[in-house]
Amino acid sequence: MSDAARTYLSGIQPSGLLHLGNYFGAIERHVALQERPGRHYYFIADYHALTTVHDAELLRRNVFETAVAYLALGLDPERAVLFRQSDVPEVTEIAWLLACVTGMGLLERAHSYKDKVARGIKPSVGLFTYPVLMAADILAYDSELVPVGRDQVQHVEMTQDMATRFNETFGSRVFVRPEMLMPETAAARKVPGLDGQKMSKSYGNDLWIFESGKKLRKRVNRIVTDSRPPEEPKDPDELFLFDLLALFLPPDELEGLRDAVRRGGPGAPGYGDLKARLAEAIEERFAPARARREELLAHPERVEEVLSAGGAEARRKATEVRDRAYRACGLR
Ligand code: ADP
Ligand code: TRP
Question: Which ligand is nearest to the CA of 27?
Fold first, then answer.
């Protein structure tokens, strides 16, 4: 399978600045996948962000920052189509067709919806039908492989159900049934935040990918540790600080630090030392991307050019699929 040209697609919501969890759980992988033969679609899910962001200026800024981040972190517009979801309004038409063959029960079982309601969010109709729009995003480009994190698995399964249901209802093979691609390493599946829970904007425990200097050091210093002194031997597997270090340090250095912490005694590194090393390694890892980001910020028209060209290309494909779906169900 790996050598066959396939169609890959994924999206990310511009609901805030991208953090290390988004990088290791999503963007790093999207950038790596573009090397594979095939078609690659990556989009900024601004329609979806409207379920939570109700501030026009903020949404515009987040969309721009997300596009800049993708490009600075290595997405190559020559190989992958980068676009804004709302530049392809056909997805909302496809979403309507899917909504008409989707049972309420399917949406009522969505974990992500139930979690948000349990956290006290007053649901809008948009939040409830979020998975239908996400299915349309995937099906609009005949996507075959959808790289997503664990939190999106159910949404992709729902997409498979909706594609099958539509095809069965109208007796044709309108939609391609997509498969998901899960992250390969445990580290990428769950990047811990400053408090050890999963890093997430909604928990306020995140580290912005492009943070640097004093601000970065201050933020890294907030990583929760205990009050044991450096000399006391500790099990590094119990310290989530090491899960973060593992994402940045070369394996031999990481092993050396783990041993030193395990042994304890005089000269063993304390939490402050480990945090200082982490901040330094983060800064170094993203230095080239940070420089590219600065350059893009100075030339916003280049970013807009990429998004407009990507949007036009994505729209051509989505229009073809929309027409196929319209014909199948009798709208043409
Ligand atoms: P957030 O939880 O901050 O709102 P999103 O839900 O918008 O983040 O996630 C966007 C993408 O980043 C998804 O593919 C998700 O799987 C991935 N992701 C988010 N947080 C993490 C994390 N802590 N570890 C690994 N992947 C993550
Ligand atoms: N729901 C995804 C998230 O929050 C974003 C998304 C929207 C998406 N449409 C998609 C991801 C289609 C993959 C495919 O991360």
Answer: 1
Q: What is the pLDDT of residues 11-69, one digit of tens each?
A: 999 999 999 999 999 999 999 999 999 999 999 999 999 999 999 999 999 999 999 99
Class of 3-190+300-329 per CATH? alpha beta
Annotate 96-164 with DSSP letters as a single string.
HHHHTT--HHHHHT-HHHHHHHHTT----HHHHTHHHHHHHHHHTTT--EEE--GGGHHHHHHHHHHHH
* Nearest C-alpha neighbor of 29 from the set 45, 12, 46, 47: 12
Break the chain down into helix, strand, coil percent, rounded to 5.
60, 10, 35
**Residue 134 has which token pair?**
């996400």
Atom of ligand 2 nearest to the CA of 133: 9
Give this prediction's pTM.
0.95
Given a contact cutoff of 8 angstroms between Cβ atoms, the answer to whether 133 and 48 are in contact is yes
CATH, domain range 213-293: 1.10.240.10
**Cβ(210)–Cβ(286) below 8 Å:** yes
Active site residue 214: no
Q: Which residues line ligand 1 (CB under 6 A)?
A: 12-13, 21-22, 24-26, 148-149, 151-152, 189-191, 198-202
The DSSP code sequence of 49-76 is HTTT---HHHHHHHHHHHHHHHHHTT--
Residue matched to tokens 């729009």: 133
Residue 12 alpha carbon, nearest atom of ligand 1: 10
Exactly one of 190, 201, 234, 317 is catalytic; name it: 201
Report the SS3 class of residue 264: coil
Q: Which ligand is nearest to the CA of 22?
A: 1
Choosing from 190, 198, 234, 275, the catalytic residue is 198
* Ligand 2: centre distance to CA 133 (Å): 9
* Domain boundaries, given as residue ranges, for the chain: 3-190+300-329, 213-293
Pairing of strands 6-12, 81-84: unpaired
CB 67 within 8 A of CB 39: no
